[in-house]
Amino acid sequence: MKRRRILATVAMLAVGSGLVACSSDEGGSDASNCTNTITKKDLPVVTMWGWYPNTQLVVDNFNKLNNEVQVCWTNVGQGGDEYDKFQTAISAGTGAPDVIMVEADRIPTFQIQGALVDIKQYGFDAVKANYSEGAWKDVSVGDAVYGVPVDGGPMGMIYRKDIFDKYKITPPKTWAEYEQAAQKVKDAGGPLFGDFGANVPAVLMALQIQKGAKPFTSDPAQPNAIGVKLNDQASKDVLDYWGGLAKKGLVGTQNQFTPEYISGVINGNYATYISAAWAPGYLTGAGVGKGQDTGKFAVAPLPQWDSANPVQVNWGGSAFSVTKQAKKPELAAKVAYGLYADKESLTDGWTNQIIFPLNLTALKDPAFVDLKVAFFGGQQANKEVYVPAADAYQGVQYAPFGQYYLDAMEKQVSEVIKGSVTGSQAADRLQEDVAKYAKEQGFTVQ
């Protein structure tokens, strides 16, 4: 799930040949040190790193149902901690697991180093129909598939029903309507309408893509060439829009995922929260929707830039990838395809708000679709907002230096918030920064 990006830090990865790992017969992490207990000891074992809260259940379910291979699971840390250990193993050419859980936007970073296996050759056709085209695109580089989708973050607009009712606001269907509603609430002496936080650059990236931006493009036939377009008109428009809202005092500029921000959400300091399908679970865990603000939240579809041409976007999501150090990649692929794919594991995941599932078995399950979400006062949020958004999502192409890009975006948004640059100027500066970095890493920038 997303949330991990806020905490995750990983060393920037050079593209030089010295970091490219080769497949090794001696590769793979230690299969004798499993967190789980393997009962079918006569079967071959595939090692796996992952950090989901219910991974023990997921692995036990897989091992119980499978008579060809067993999974030895180890939790080496969440997000950045795991990525650091994987990077060390890549550089050393040994010590990586056979299967690793990664956020979808990290896949190109490891793929460019030759650290992941294209699993399309290992049974892809048999499971292709289990996920949408957009879900597959997020874990692919060109025509090659480097991961199996598990969870995602189709986006929507969470809002305070009490604030909307008080100021007679209906959920805005466009971003123009969003600004009009924000102005109406401000003029009436109401709270901020939303938040323009510097530390959620992935949200801005998603909204830029929603408006038509294509930040990164590439051709698999030219792996060291990449298109970087971060200052096109769509990208500038989005940064100018949010910078304008902040300048007018219509939205706040507080970093999100902080105690101060959460306190503001609880106290009704914000009328809306632009976020993803995992947000209800995160907010519940942070103490929102309890006590004085119980039952005050609802969710609506994400506002559109062009209502005649709606575009759905995503924030977050993870996958299982097969590493080049896997001794038996075909068996490892079987594990990647099968983990978190059985009904019991999927149901446990969405019931306990651990994942927003991308497996169509769950997305089409009436129990999931028709769920009355307690955080939203019984609203059928999946049916009304998140499932349609997931179904319509077309996927995106991520960069092999995505973390650098997001960190650079955060710096530029901070400058917009300070008022030292406009959104358009920030986009130009971001383009210059990221293009320069890409060239330093050995890429030809197109």
From TrEMBL:
Organism of this sequence: Micromonospora inaquosa
Pfam families recorded: SBP_bac_1
PROSITE patterns: PROKAR_LIPOPROTEIN (PS51257)
Region forming the signal peptide: 1-23
Entry superkingdom: Bacteria
SUPFAM superfamilies xref list: Periplasmic binding protein-like II (SSF53850)
Coiled coil: none
Keywords of this entry: Signal
Claim: Signal is one of the keywords in the record: yes
Protein name: ABC transporter substrate-binding protein
